[in-house]
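Hello again, I could really use a second opinion on something today. I've dropped the whole record in just underneath, so have a look.
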Amino acid sequence: MMVCDTIEQWSDRVARIYGYRCAWPKCRSHFGLGAHHIYYRRYKVLWLVVENGVYLCARHHGLFHTIGSKSDRYRVAIRAIIGERRLAILASTFDEAYHHKDRKAESRSSEIDLGGPNGSYNLD
């Protein structure tokens, strides 16, 4: 996967992949274009990954935000635009990163007992 250094670089690379046209099937608009995160920006692990972007016109970008990423319509639309394989790779990367983070937090919490007598910390 290609990771960019800045959001501007990410947006430009996503635009180039789609030929500066809307990726929505049969649209190809040149109006109000912008890069859209498939996994939203709050998921930092995929924030600047080029494969996590799709280039959309204002109408279709707004539609994605209206229907919401948790809906079946969103998943069907994304599959139609980027394909099942790319979506599976993104989902796997996302799951692996966040499960790794959860496992790391679990191992740290098992090492530190915060319930010691008198509120003391037991680091043994």
